[in-house]
Amino acid sequence: MARFRRRMWITLLLFLLFVFGIMMGLKTLKPEGAGFGDGIGLELLPQLHHRAAVGERRADLPNIEKSSESRTLPPPPHLKTSEHFGMMKRAPVSDTSLDHFPPVNYDLHTFYYSWYGNQQFDGKYIHWNHPLVPHWDPKIASSYPKGRHIPPEDIGASFYPELGAYSSRDPAIINAHMIQLRDAAIGVLALSWYPPGLSDENGEPTEDLVPVILEAADKYQLKVTFHIEPYEGRENTLYSNLKYIIDKYGSHPAFYRHKTSTGRYLPMFYIYDSYLISPGSWADLLSVSGSRSLRNTQYDALFIALIVEEKHKNEILQAGFDGMYTYFATNGFSHGSSHHNWQAIKDFCDSNNLMFIPSVGPGYIDTSIRAWNNHNTRNRVNGKYYETALSTALLVRPEIITITSFNEWHEGTQIEKAVPKKSSQFVYLDYLPHKPDIYLELTRKWAEKFRSEKEQWLM
């Protein structure tokens, strides 16, 4: 009996020691949710605090990355500091982590704008508060409202972004855009570009964002080319500005180079409103015998002019350009943007060793900033307008197709995700009955069709 009691006490003592050991072990563990997740100490890290505030703001927006219909996407890779660029640089993404995306088509380019700003990242709204542009005829102008938009409920657009009135400086927004671009199989974004210190009349300088966009694009195996805007003094400074771009960004893995028929890999520049400079002045830069020729130098490139009027065909040839693009998403607005002219333009280009790059768009509506311009509105017809433009572009067998645009919200040409929204004074257009990514899906479908048909052309 005494032996039994002794064994019982020993067993009880061992049990108590076991329980005590478990309690001490648990005490050393960090409770779930402790650390940055509970907000403690965020005030010591301004950048994290800033992003946390933006995260709370986005939680109030409808359907952002919450739709059960949306494609499941991987979380953004870990951020790390790059001393070289003095910015946040994301760690490389392995090829295997991109397997769920479709293959990119580097012959499909889209025009991309980084001119948007908001209170959280820029201290004020930029471009979302676009003014109402008056008609040039004072009598007509007097019939339309004046003033400017007041974000975030009232923005200078007829559609409303799924990401809200965002800032182009927000790293999360840039990453989300790259995911959308890659998801649409678009290979190249043509970045709207102004030299350092310059911008459009409604914006702020954004040239410092180029390294950030290049890094973000490279994560998703995308490339960046440049859409040179018509800034003041362009005729006199373009030579040095092109050298600046190539010297500063030309070695970056995301810097786009196009393989020519001779096997050279050259940068490409789209030159918006190229007709503002005379063919003779362009020839100084773009002809082999020009006084400031870029040809056969380390700064040689493919220079693509904008064709608006029919006469521009010969002027572009005379100026020494390598090709022409049409930009405008309004079928019938200009000679160049009229679909029925594309075959004739392509024939002219073929006979003169020029590239013809048609621009397709999902529709057009800019009445939020040009209230008097409703005659140029082109209804999206639930995606049929876009598919008609893409189909017409493929018929002329172009080497490259451009999309106007990824995010030019003022003119309603965006393929970026948009959501239904109603303010106290305005009901925004939307993509219903389709989901917010319908134009990304359509782009992905036609990117593959373009790839497969091009393979047949080259056989």
UniProtKB/TrEMBL annotation:
Membrane topology: Single-pass type II membrane protein
Signal peptide range in chain numbering: 1-25
Catalytic activity: N-{alpha-Glc-(1->3)-alpha-Man-(1->2)-alpha-Man-(1->2)-alpha-Man-(1->3)-[alpha-Man-(1->2)-alpha-Man-(1->3)-[alpha-Man-(1->2)-alpha-Man-(1->6)]-alpha-Man-(1->6)]-beta-Man-(1->4)-beta-GlcNAc-(1->4)-beta-GlcNAc}-L-asparaginyl-[protein] + H2O = alpha-D-glucosyl-(1->3)-D-mannopyranose + N(4)-{alpha-D-Man-(1->2)-alpha-D-Man-(1->3)-[alpha-D-Man-(1->2)-alpha-D-Man-(1->3)-[alpha-D-Man-(1->2)-alpha-D-Man-(1->6)]-alpha-D-Man-(1->6)]-beta-D-Man-(1->4)-beta-D-GlaNAc-(1->4)-beta-D-GlcNAc}-L-asparaginyl-[protein] (N-glucan mannose isomer 8A1,2,3B1,2)
Subcellular location: Golgi apparatus membrane
GO CC terms: Golgi membrane
InterPro entries: Glyco_Hydrolase_99
Any matching Pfam family: Glyco_hydro_99
Keyword tRNA processing found: no
Gene3D superfamilies linked: Glycosidases (3.20.20.80)
EC number in record: 3.2.1.130
Highest rank taxon of the organism: Eukaryota
Keywords: Golgi apparatus, Hydrolase, Membrane, Signal, Signal-anchor, Transmembrane, Transmembrane helix
Predominant location category: Golgi
Molecular function as annotated in GO: glycoprotein endo-alpha-1,2-mannosidase activity
Region described as Disordered: 59-83
UniProt record similarity statement: Belongs to the glycosyl hydrolase 99 family.
Protein name stated in the entry: Glycoprotein endo-alpha-1,2-mannosidase
Organism: Chiloscyllium punctatum
